[in-house]
UniProtKB/TrEMBL annotation:
The lineage of its organism: Bacteria, Pseudomonadati, Pseudomonadota, Betaproteobacteria, Burkholderiales. It comes from Pseudoduganella buxea. GO terms for cellular component: periplasmic space. Residues 108-170 form the SAF domain. The gene is flgA. Involved in the assembly process of the P-ring formation. It may associate with FlgF on the rod constituting a structure essential for the P-ring assembly or may act as a modulator protein for the P-ring assembly. This is Flagella basal body P-ring formation protein FlgA.
Amino acid sequence: MKTFYTVLSGVMLAALLNGNATAAEAMDPAKLRQAVDAFLQVQSAGLPGKVTVTVGNVDARMKLAACPAPEAFLMPGSKPWGKTTVGVRCAAPSPWTVYIQANVSVLGNYIAAAAPVPQGQPIVDSQLATMQGDLTTMPASIATDKAQVLGRTSNIAISAGMPLRLDSLRIKPVVQSGQLVRLVSNGPGFKVSAEAKAVANAADGQVVQVRTAGGQHISGIARAGGMVEVAF
């Protein structure tokens, strides 16, 4: 009987040791989440605001072999912005790949209408307010600085409180299609000026093409006052 208990104790000890070894060889879910968090912190560096990364839970029932160097990556088309999915893969000793849900929130300033903004009229400072919120939940191409919208006109009427989107704003042209403009060019020891006709609309600083009296097409930089700067 003593021999039987001795053998049984040895079997139980071996099973316990094997169980501990198996647990030690399994990938710790916490390390997976740490890899995702560290990866998103790097990927979101430089975003315009205070970034907060939240990593979803990892299914504890999932058994992955331990990996000394798990590599996190973004799936094609994914961004470190809002709700996203991050992959984590292991190359050796046992290759595997797992996908983990995460959320990247960006608390920052955005520009909203403090008063109604009529369609087609230049936007002035008194119509604007600086607000704060999670930029990842805002419309695409949201304005984050008043300088981005002042002087522009809106394609639509904007109600008070609505965020301003850059893709719905137009820059007032300083040169219009068909307008007679003054071509100017300066260089070491010379200054040239000639008359031409604009082929398209252009805002200050934009490239515009003009046609000279001789029919030649030239590209230059549109400037206020109906001037186009040309470099020769």
